[in-house]
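During the no-cost extension, the postdoctoral fellow (Dr. R.K.) reprocessed legacy sequence entries with the updated structure-token encoder. One reprocessed record is reproduced below for audit purposes.
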Amino acid sequence: MEFPFTTLDVFTTKQLEGNPLAVVRVPASLRDRLTQSVKQKIAKEFNLSETVFLHDDTSNSGSDSREIDIFTIQRELPFAGHPTIGTAVFVRSHLEGGEGVHTLASKAGPIGIEASSVPQGIRAQIPHSTHLHAKTLRDVLSPSADGLHQDLAIREAELDAPVFSIVKGMSVVLVPLPSIELLGQVKILSLDFASLDAPLLDEGWREGLVMRYYYAEDAASAQANNVKCLRTRMVELGFEDPATGSAATALCAYLTLTQEKIDTRFQVTQGVEMGRKSVINVDTTLDGRGELGEVYLGGNAVVVMKGTLQVDA
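Re-encoded structure tokens follow.
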């Protein structure tokens, strides 16, 4: 079997910055032969934080939509941010006929995509079913547990951080830090959330990925047009992620609901400390009841490599 692939750097306009992504096109004739286990092996072969399988078959989705499957090196995800933006840029700008595609059909639901002029790039309307969990890490971990940060201020922030899900299967421990300087001291850590002595997540929300997302306000980058600027890091699973769109979306949704309480535009900058600066844009709205309305994730992506993946099966 042969599959065309393209790699892109996402949330950037410069190659070798942002977050790398592989997009593997699946011809309609090979759809039934490409099993879940083979997709997982291909994702491991690319060894990136995520790999997207983009289906050419439109018999189920319609000509203005494309089905996508998102895989990490360990599992399939219902939704992830940088794969959504990277795939949207690839489809709209590099796929023949892609300018007529307005929806990516993910496991979390349909994601509307459109060109964005302010800021320039692509934005995607993100499906969401938010939930603030009752417990924090302090409720299920000893303050001296392995996997927590050695710095006392960071560890205390980890223990008391709210746990928030943007959709089922994607939960984030949102760790607020008082300064960008302290954010820069966060170390690469690994905490096995599946092996905690007691469940961290509420009943009915316990499947999927859990990560810590550290953030600080970026007052120096504050803009005149009411954009809230944040600096963030995702340091989990033994590595650092240059850009985590799903976590940024969760963070901005949480802040909108609990602090801003108005429609808000966010600019989230991640990956600076590891030399892969990523700029993530999130727009949130509230409805008339004060509940989360629309959530848009935006950014750019640039092509880095193209090729053909050959798989014997």
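The first strand starts at residue 2 and ends at 10. The mean pLDDT is 94. The remaining legacy entries will be reprocessed before the final report is submitted.
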